[in-house]
Backbone:
């Protein structure tokens, strides 16, 4: 029988725990409280040792760390092998991670090695008696699937930007440096290079500010109005599905149920009606500004600030003001 503890799997990249980390830690804490157990963490990445003790500020008791140059780039077999050592050390009831690209690869590997039930990309998760219950969107967001895993241990991944990030407090976790030599010796894959695509643009799911445009822009030739405001603010550009389906913008910019889930500090919805499927992807934004010429548009029900006006007038004026403010 596993313990009542939760093991949070965290990635260290670019000198810090990745953005999804505090979201995983928030849910790990909540679920461990339900179980009456402790939160442990498995943190992997080159340089991760330096960030491990501070995880105590999130309520982590023990942080198991895999830190060596071999962990500089994500290598699924290697990380899963090292995670196995952390799992063996704390025998958790639940292994929780984020459904990021590495997380989507890692979750099934850990579940297979534990012969455990797996719930991926969850938008809701709970412990119900001895079982884990979760909800996950399926068929490109057309339906939600309810999952119940009756026997522990459980492995689950949560969709990024859906759950609120935990706030860091004070306190140190006990740091356990894992000996990764065995894992490195066993791995059959070597990652030679990771070559990020140089788009020169802010990544949508990581962006602090997003300016999204919808069908109110009337055509792709007017999207420069959205791009200019985004550039002035240092923001990422997003889009509604209507304009993506129309071929005005790439799918990589689509926000919503069948696009990306985002939770920036500031979200501009320009000429977007606020359909439930769009809202599903951005409603957790901290501050929402809507610009729409229809005062009855449902986006205004959600917006913190609403501008009833024409995007062709409001966007250039706003961009000009932002540029002037920024000098
Ligand atoms: C299964 C499913 C999944 C979906 N997934 C997604 C998803 O992931 N993301 C998503 O966005 N949608 C999704 N949709 C589509 C969604 O239902 C809406 O059709 C879509 O969001 C509408 O996009 P829109 O707001 O740009 O267009 P519209 O609904 O046409 O709204 C345009 C808005 O612009 C305003 N407007 C027009 N002219 C101006 C102007 N000059 N100035 C200011 N405002 C103006 C109008 O008042 C209107 O409110 C999905 C639908 C389904 C069925």
Residues:
């Amino acid at each position: 029988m596993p313990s009542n503890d939760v093991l949070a799997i965290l990635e260290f990249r670019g000198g810090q725990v990745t953005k999804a980390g505090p979201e995983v830690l928030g849910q790990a804490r909540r679920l461990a409280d339900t179980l009456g157990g402790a939160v442990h963490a498995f943190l992997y990445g080159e340089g991760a040792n330096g960030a491990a003790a501070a995880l105590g500020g999130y309520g982590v008791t023990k942080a198991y760390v895999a830190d060596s140059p071999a962990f500089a780039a994500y290598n699924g077999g290697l990380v899963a092998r090292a995670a196995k050592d952390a799992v063996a050390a704390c025998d958790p009831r639940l292994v929780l991670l984020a459904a990021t690209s590495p997380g989507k690869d890692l979750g099934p590997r850990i579940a297979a090695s534990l012969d455990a039930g797996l719930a991926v990309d969850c938008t809701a998760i709970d412990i119900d008696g001895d079982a884990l219950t979760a909800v996950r969107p399926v068929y490109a967001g057309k339906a939600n699937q309810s999952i119940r895993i009756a026997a522990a241990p459980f492995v689950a991944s949560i969709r990024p930007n859906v759950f609120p990030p935990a706030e860091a407090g004070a306190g140190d976790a006990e740091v356990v440096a894992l000996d990764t030599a065995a894992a490195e010796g066993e791995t059959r894959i070597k990652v030679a290079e990771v070559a990020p695509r140089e788009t020169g643009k802010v990544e949508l799911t990581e962006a602090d500010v997003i300016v999204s445009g919808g069908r109110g822009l009337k055509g792709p030739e007017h999207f420069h109005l959205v791009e200019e405001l985004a550039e002035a603010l240092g923001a990422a550009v997003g889009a509604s599905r209507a304009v993506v389906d129309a071929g005005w913008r790439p799918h990589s910019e689509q926000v919503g149920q069948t696009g990306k889930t985002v939770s920036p500090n500031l979200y501009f919805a320009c000429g977007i009606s606020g359909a439930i499927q769009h809202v599903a992807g951005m409603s957790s934004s901290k501050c929402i500004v809507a610009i729409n010429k229809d005062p009855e548009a449902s986006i205004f029900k959600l917006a913190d600030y609403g501008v009833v006006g024409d995007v062709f007038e409001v966007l250039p004026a706003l961009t000009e003001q932002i540029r002037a403010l920024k000098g």
Notes: The chain has two domains: 6-186, 204-326. Residues 20-35 form the longest helix (16 residues).
